[in-house]
C-alpha cells in the first residue's frame, strides 16, 4: 500500500545505466547534445558514460561553404569556418584546416571555435613550391590537396604532426603542431644523364620516371607512428618520425620504399568498345591494418574526366610489411568494419559499435573532388552527390548514400561534400 502511494520518480532521477542505454542508441551527436540539455543530471552524464562506453557518433557532411549538416540534412550549429581572411578549408577528421588569404594555416574545432595556428606549415609549403617544376608562390593558397594529423592537437598534451600533400603530388610537407619546426620531402628524383642505348632499352614508364623525375603521391596516412605515402603505381613509401621531433628527420633521404611500384597499374584503362575506366586509390588505417582501396569508375568514351564518372566497384588490399619487399594482399571483407571514404577525409569505424544502421563490410563513398572545381566556383549547376553511395563488399551491390529526402536537400547546394567526424564530449 505504501509503495502504491509513493510519488512517481522524477526524470532527473533516471539511473545512470538507463541514461547510458538511451545515449547508446542515439547515433547523432546533435541528438546526444539535446538529451543532455534536458536537465543538469542528464547534462553531466558522467555516471552514464562510466556505465557504458558510448559508440562513436555518425559522421557529418562538411560543405565547401563551411557549413556542416548531419546525415539527415539538418544543419549543425558551429563556429563559422569560412570567415574573413580565410581562403578555404579542408576537413581533417573532427577539425578544419583553414587556409588564409596569405597562405598561412591554422586548425580549428568548429564546435568550440578553438584555433591553433601552424606558422611553419605555410613556409614549408612555400619552399616545396619553389622546388616545383609547375607551380610557384602564387599557388600557395590552393596548394593543399589533403591534410592529416597523427593525433588531435587541440585535446592532447602531446605534440602531434600534421602532414599535407602538395597539389602536384610530388611533395609532402610535415609540420609539428606546437613546436616551430616543419620539413618538406620530395618524391622527385634528380635528373641524370642516360645514354641513348640505355634509354631505348627502357619501357615508356621507366623513361618517364627517369626523365620527368616524378612519381605522384595519391594518398597519405599515419600508421603505427610512421607516415606512409601511396603512389599512382601502388607503390608504398614510408618515413619514420620520432614522436613529433623533426630534427633527426631532416637528415634522412626522404621516403623509403616498402612496397615497390607496379608499372602495370594505371589511372585510366581504355577497354574494348571504346570504354574507359578511371581508377582512384586511397590508403587508410583500419583495425590495426593499413589498407589500400581501389575505386573503379566507368567513364563514357566522349566525356571529360570528372563530368559523368560513375563508381562501379571497389577492391581492398592489406599491406603485408613483414616481407622485404612488402606486398599488397587482396581481402574480401573489412572484418565487420565500415570505411567512410573520400579524397579529403577518410576513416574506418567498427560498424557494430555505431548506432544508426552502419553496414558492416561496406564502403561509404562521396562524389570525388576532381576536375569540377571551376564549375563549383562559378556556380554552374551540378549534383554534389552524383557519384556517391554505399558499396557492400559481401555482394558487390551499391545503394544510395542517403535517404532521397536528404539527397534532395543537398542537391540544391552546388558544392562538393566531404566527411567530418565529430567527437562525443
From TrEMBL:
Extract the Pfam families matched here: Beta-prop_KIB1-4 (PF03478)
Under the heading InterPro entries, the entry gives: F-box-like_dom_sf, KIB1-4_b-propeller
Q: Which domain of life is it from?
A: Eukaryota
KIB1-4 beta-propeller domain residues are 100-392
Quote the protein name from its UniProt record: KIB1-4 beta-propeller domain-containing protein
